[in-house]
Every structure is written in structure tokens, then in C-alpha cells.
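Q: Here's a chain of 131 amino acids. Please give me its 3D structure as C-alpha cells.
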Amino acid sequence: MQTELLILEWVHERVPRSAVPFARVVTALGETPVVWALVGTSCLVRAVRSGGRAHWAGPLSTLAAATALRRGTAELIARPRPPERLWRAPWSGPSFPSRHTALGTLGVALAAADLLSRPAGVTCRWQRRSG
């Protein structure tokens, strides 16, 4: 743990205060309500694009399972937060795995996969070239 503290102190000394607002935006975008709203909106857009066919169970159940898994993992590991002198923002819960990083990344991936996938009925045929 001493090595980790030395690394944290080294990083803390080198990260400029001007980077803190950016980190707070990243944190806010990865908060649970934002992620759920993003995935829910992508499901609604997909339903509209596919003629009203409901398409919510997969992405939302994946997000629910990932949320539960991340929380369970965080409580099981129970990694403590760095010393208060290194804080630049308020926090809640264990520090690993990070809620805003894990759920934010998964939420964006689920929304992108949902919105960028082919609409129902569109197929692609692969033709094999001879020779």
C-alpha cells in the first residue's frame, strides 16, 4: 500500500488544478442516473427507428446486471480511499472498481451498440469471390 500512496502523491503533485473540472464532468457523465437515462433513451430511439418494436430488455438488463456486479465487487474488495489530503472532489463508496468509469463506459457502449446496429429486416449477403 505504501507504493500505491507514493504513486498517488506523485500524480497529485503533477495533475494541474485546471484538470479538475474535466474530471468532474467525466464523473458526472458516469453517474448512475445519467447512464440509465442514456441507455433508456437509446432504447427509445431504437424502438422508434424499428417501427415501435420494443427493444429494451437486453440493454437495460445488461446494465442492471453490470451495476449489481460492480457494486458487489466494490463491497467485496472494499478498497479504501486515498488520504483526505489527496482529494480534489467529494466521493462516496469504495474506490474500486470506479462507478463512474465502469458504468459510464458500459453505458456508452450499450447505447452505441443499440443505435449503430442494423435495423430489423436489413441483411447483408457476403459474396465469395472465385479465383
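Q: Can you summarize the key feature?
A: Residues 21-80+94-116 form one domain.
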